[in-house]
Amino acid sequence: MSDNKPLDGHRVLVLVTNYGVEQDELLVPVRRLRDDGADVTVAAVSSDPIATLVGDRDAGETVEPTTTLETVDPGACQLLLIPGGTINADQLRLQPKALEVIKKFATSGRPIAAICHGPWALVEADVLRDKTLTSYPSVRTDACNAGAKSWVDEAVVSDSANGYTLVTSRTPKDLDDFVREVSKALAGEVPITGEARR
User: Fold this and answer.
1) Three-state secondary structure readout of the chain
2) Is 87 buried (19+), middle (13-18) or exposed (0-12) by CB count in 10 A?
3) Which among 74, 126, 138, 148 could disulfide-bond with 101, CB atoms 3.0 to 4.6 Å apart, if both were Cys?
4) What strands, in cross-sheet order, belong to the sheet with 19-22?
5) How far apart, in whole angstroms, are the C-alpha atoms of residue 136 and residue 187?
6) What DSSP element (H or E) covers 82?
7) What span, in angstroms and rounded, lies between the C-alpha atoms of 188 and 103?
8) What does pTM read for this prediction?
């Protein structure tokens, strides 16, 4: 019997700030993707611990980042994941390096996944043109003003317009659907093996 997992050889980059990311929108995808064999890098603004929140209000788990935005190599990963949390998403879109990474993923045709308020960073990076997506409802107008084709009230949306796949969801209640579609998008990418993984 093989010990291979469905996402062996696949690498995911998660972008967050060090305070205010919604706990489950970070931890659930990271744990499930790792359980399926993916190598997940969590890049934060600084090397300080990441203080998550539950419902934008209550203290959640503290997470150690893998690396920082300034030192991460976005070319080494196949899928970009942006969790929500109102404070996290609002601050992340003010980080020039985060916006640079988002643009690199979109222009290179690699998939991007964002949940809840996460698409705010995509608005700022100007990568939503002609996309159909979902998000937390308060992001709807911003997404449409940034050129999105449409915003829909669905648990998960996967859209491949404009050369890259975008997976979006609304809230932590949609995490099962979100992680399923993220895994599908990632599995469609060529795994990174051998020398390329170093």
Assistant:
1) CCCCCCCCCCEEEEECCCEEEEHHHHHHHHHHHHHCCCEEEEEECCCCCEEEEECCCEEEEEECCCEECCCCCHHHCCEEEECCCHHHHHHHCCCHHHHHHHHHHHHHCCCEEEECCCHHHHHHHCCCCCCEECCCHHHHHHHHHCCCCEECCCCEEEECHHHCCEEEECCHHHHHHHHHHHHHHHHCCCCCCHHHHC
2) middle
3) 74
4) 19-22, 50-54, 58-63
5) 26
6) strand 79-82
7) 20
8) 0.94
Maximum CA extent, the chain: 52
Side chain identity, residue 116: C
**Which residue type does 19 have?**
Y
**Pick from 33, 36, 23, 69: nearest CA to 167:** 33
Look at residue 109 and give its three-state secondary structure.
coil
Residues annotated as catalytic are: 117
Tens digit of pLDDT at every position of the chain (198 positions): 557 899 999 999 999 999 999 999 999 999 999 999 999 999 999 999 999 999 999 999 999 999 999 999 999 999 999 999 999 999 999 999 999 999 999 999 999 999 999 999 999 999 999 999 999 999 999 999 999 999 999 999 999 999 999 999 999 999 999 999 999 999 987 665 443 333
